[in-house]
Write a structure and sequence with these properties.
- The protein is α/β, with parallel strands linked by helices.
- It is 43% helix and 15% strand.
- The protein has a single domain, classed as NAD(P)-binding Rossmann-like Domain (Rossmann fold), CATH 3.40.50.720.
- The protein is built from 4 helices and 3 strands; from the N terminus they run αβαβαβα.
- It has a 3-stranded parallel beta sheet, with helices on both faces.
- The longest helix has 12 residues, at 27-38.
- The chain is flat, with a radius of gyration of 13 Å.
Length: 88
């Protein structure tokens, strides 16, 4: 069993129904976007300064993508989550 599946099975990682934010949409960030969706995240937010990588994150399953150079990421996430933030 892979580490990700083992962590999910044993309850070390709780994602089902949570909102998840991924800072950086490089190879590892894209993997985390995919895993968050597979593990049942309700919303996945990805951030990056590269429009190309933001497009890849959207294709990988991120429902919301923000560029911190032009977006206030914290405010946008608070708005999306009714002030609760991610991980809830």
């Amino acid at each position: 069993m892979t580490g990700e599946k083992q962590a999910a099975r044993t309850g070390l990682v709780r994602v089902v129904g949570d909102s998840v934010a991924v800072m950086g949409a490089g190879p590892i960030g894209l993997f985390i976007v995919l895993m968050a969706k597979v593990m049942g995240a309700s919303d996945v937010v990805a951030t990056d300064i590269s429009p190309y990588r933001l497009d890849l994150a959207r294709k990988a399953g991120a429902g919301f993508v923000f560029n911190p150079l032009s977006d206030d990421v914290v405010e946008r996430v608070r708005s999306l989550t009714a002030g609760v933030g991610v991980g809830q």
